[in-house]
Amino acid sequence: MAFSQMCGPCTRMDKSASAVKFCTDCEDPLCADCVTIHKAIKALTLHHLIDEEVQAGKAFNIRRTCSDHPDMSLEFYCSNHESLCCRTCSVNTHRTCDKILPIDVSARGIKTSVMLNDVTTDLKALLKTSEQLEEERAKTRKTSGKLKRPLYIL
């Protein structure tokens, strides 16, 4: 189910352009021109842009605020607990942890990591298997409809 969402900034300026990226910080879909502008503005350079089709499919929900401190944004990653945390949590809950880094620092190189490659390969294999199962199921339905006598399973 592919659909094209319209660019937020362009829509607000009474223009029409299809979004190609989604800024998870601004919560706004962006067209190619607005992505270029978004990246050029210094205050927005640390914003996270994802492909629009990922956001359009709503495959996952990105949480940006702390569950313990809803008014605080998640800024750090604790390697000891493998969790995201806000400034308050980093001082209170993770005070003794020695592996707390800003999210952007801890995420460096993730796109080329072995773990991401392994997960991607596994997901592709699962997708292929599910597609094969769907095809087999459709064939089975088609052939079972052609049987002259009912099929009983004992």
Automatic annotation (TrEMBL):
PROSITE patterns: ZF_BBOX
UniProt entry keywords in alphabetical sequence: Coiled coil, Metal-binding, Zinc, Zinc-finger
A single Gene Ontology CC term: nucleoplasm
Coiled-coil spans in chain: 116-143
Domain B box-type residues, every copy: 61-103
Keyword match Coiled coil: yes
Highest taxon, organism lineage: Eukaryota
A GO molecular-function descriptor: ubiquitin protein ligase activity
UniProt name for this protein: B box-type domain-containing protein
